[in-house]
Amino acid sequence: MKKITLLILFFVASLIGYSQELVTNGDFESATTGAWFGNAFNIVTQGSNNLNQANVTSAGAPFDVNLSQVIDLQDGLTYELNFDAFTDTNTGTRTIIAGLGQNGGDFTSLTEQPTLTSTPQTFTFQFTVNYGDNVDDRVLFDMGAETGFVFIDDVSVIEVTTTCNNGVQDGDETGVDCGGSICPPCVNPPSGPPTTPPARDPSSVLSVYSDAYTQAPTDGFQTFGGAVVTEIDLSGNGIQQVTTPVTGSGLQYQYFGVTPQFLDLSAMTNMHIDFYFEGNPSAPGTILIVIAQYSDGTNIQENFDVTALAPNTWHENDIPFADFDANSGNPRDEIQQVIVQVAGADGSITGPFYIDNLYFHDNTTIGTEDFTSNNFSTYPNPTSDSWTITSQNENIKTVEIFNTLGRLVKSFAVNDQYTQINASDLSSGIYFAKVSGGNNQVKTLKLIKK
Length: 450
Hints:
Elements: E1 4-7, E2 17-21, E3 36-37, E4 43-46, E5 49-56, E6 66-71, E7 78-86, E8 93-95, E9 97-102, E10 109-112, E11 115-117, E12 121-128, E13 137-142, E14 148-161, E15 205-209, E16 221-224, E17 228-234, E18 237-243, E19 250-254, E20 270-277, E21 286-293, E22 299-305, E23 315-320, E24 335-343, E25 353-361, H1 369-372, E26 376-379, E27 386-391, E28 396-403, E29 408-416, E30 418-422, E31 429-437, E32 442-449
Protein name: T9SS type A sorting domain-containing protein
Keywords: Hydrolase, Signal
InterPro entries: CenC_carb-bd (IPR003305), Galactose-bd-like_sf (IPR008979), Secre_tail (IPR026444)
């Protein structure tokens, strides 16, 4: 059929090359193919030509009427979407949403909203995938926001080869396929980890992510807003590399499940986080830490305006809760989420950012004398019923037993060089005994309940 062409291009034509077709049955000539799906999938014949027809009779959300196909896209590459589309003469004009996106997760997408008329047009859009490779991709058409017919034909998605993805340092790039005026910033990860955190009593620190301390049990972390998180190794120390394509994207550590097991920060006074970011973000570029309380749904949060900080260096931050936002005095005994995200009108931090040593503590450290001035010991360990704790030099004053979430589960005075702890009422797992002796000497013992 004769068609009018509407071209919308985002790259200089002289820099573009093309590769293989990614869409199956884009011309809808194979009526039985299972590649297309969605409630708008409906192949019809007009003359000798097959195409897809959808009739929206009631307007609602755009995705209420949709047509999609799973295709294989790669993060960081640019793709060209071509398709023919029109409406009927009674409808006259209407819009649709067309683009590429995720076929799962939070369904992040890159879209345009072309206006259809009763005259067939060819639409051409280019998109650079920036939401990661953690779920399948798709080509999508959402049509439910307006009523009227939508006819779609000759759908094509092809990778576009530019100076930014050809494997060669060309154009004004500062690295291979990165830097310069049009390519994404070159990744410049830290050359080494941040400073090793100080020795702390295990009962006085709750670690979210750090190699220095035992991590509090968690339901794991989730990404949102298309963020991509990759753990990389620096000199034997793991750090998290976080790529955030849009405002509000990031990751969250979760402390709830079928049986809620919240993080109790009521005894903690400080939060610590080390972060490193690349590039020079335009204002406002903010890393935001949100701590979500379960019992009343309130949050406390701390913002780091990275536009005021030097890029490409570790920033090691230890912040008292009193310095958080106006909600700093809110309860924090049932923390269900610890969230790290970017905020700001410009969309994201330029380049990835990196985090390490995200933990909470009560602002005390352990000196060497705490371990050497007395000789506390425990046996049997592991145990199924009880532990015995002994002291060689002086009386034990108190014993406090904490679980790995930092909750105090037992506490009692001793005033003897020997004490026995009943473990039969405790669940299997790891515990910490904070043993206090004379002259305020303290030692923490790791206990294992079988």
